[in-house]
Design goal:
Largest sheet: 4 strands, mixed
Distance between the termini: 34 Å
Strand order of the largest sheet: 2-1-3-4
Shape: globular
Structural class: alpha/beta
Number of strands: 4
Radius of gyration: 15 Å
Length: 111
């Protein structure tokens, strides 16, 4: 099934998020950023990652986002996460490992 690709020219503000595996954001988002970098630099941007290693957040952001996009961003944050095999089971705390305060802070900063 082919997904409809967004026309980012139609938006003033964009938030991009991605999971991290093997210290890289998911390929679809990497490709999107590479293809649309010049247009993204003209927008109000925010980026977030979901990673299970909070101590590596700064390193992961540094490694995965081009310097000019990082500098132009309103905010960049990690919302936490968990390894796939440790995903919360149905009926348990679905936010275990997710940094809800970071999500709230990101949304306030992006306004």
């Amino acid at each position: 099934m082919e997904l409809e690709k967004p026309n980012i020219e139609a938006f003033d503000s964009i938030i991009l998020g991605a999971g991290v595996r093997d210290e890289k954001i998911y390929k679809a988002i990497r490709d999107f950023i590479k293809k649309n970098k010049d247009e993204l630099l003209t927008k109000k941007m925010g980026y977030y990652i979901c990673n299970e290693k909070p101590k590596k957040t700064e390193e992961l952001i540094e490694k995965n986002f081009p310097d000019d996009l990082k500098e132009a961003a309103i905010c960049i944050e990690s919302f936490g996460g968990y390894k796939a095999y440790k995903a919360p089971k149905e009926g348990t705390d679905q936010l275990k490992g997710i940094l809800v305060d970071k999500i709230k802070e990101f949304s306030q900063n992006f306004k």
